[in-house]
Amino acid sequence: MNIKSLLVHFGKLLLCGVIFSIGTVLGGMLVTMLGMQAPTMPEGMDQQSAMLFMLLESPLLALVLALLARHLAGGFWARSLMLFFITWICNSVNTQIEAAAFAGMGEGFWFTILTFLVPALFTSMAVAWMFPPVEKVTFVDAVRSFFNRHSLGGWTWRFALGAVIFMPIYYFFGLLVIPITRAYYEQGMFGLELPSVETVLTVLFIRSVLFFIACLPVLIAWQGSRLNLFWRLGLALFYLVGFQSLLIATWMPWALRLPHMIEILFDEIIYAGALAWLMGRKK
Length: 283
Known about the structure:
- By secondary structure, this protein is mostly helical.
- 77% of the residues lie in helices and 0% in strands.
């Protein structure tokens, strides 16, 4: 790839960031028109600064989606909806579920996920259009090829395991980081809460199933190797699940954010590897 090509791709990513900003404004207008209640902001949070950081990060969102888009089968709308689904579920719905469980931000749930539905859709459409697939394969052919890889019994245990495998991975790395971050939760700093084990496991189960549903269209439509699926999906999930939200949480100290960021990097990379092993191409 030469310098000219790099500059063209960089310009595309910046344009996707602009489209994300437009979508954010329209999403805000939508929830305002619907009269929905905004969530209570955590102590010390500057909403304008957080929004500015989010807009500045948006080209990174476009980048991780573009890495996926290049190897997805299907036409423009199929690829747009796949990218939108994984973005909205993992970045918006997941974040709000976690914030409600661990940060006491249950109010304004629908306000937030509907606000970011529009920019997620707009950005996904822009990426699907500006970063076409390497191979021209229809989504129907990709579905047929995907389900022909294993028998019904083989797919049954793979789907069952894929739906819950996020739980032990996340729980394991969560245990490793608890000694570092526990004091912040016990003291209720920044609105953080330490829920019961039952609540943690329930939330983990819901998130695990949602992540699997969000990733499944990508797994079905993937036309690259298992290795490519592993690192591209892992990077995308790392950004969507934790990197973006932790980077803009400037009201929290790095002593809290960095351990969680490292935790999420490892659990999302390993989760992506597990999905690639379970459902990726054999060759």
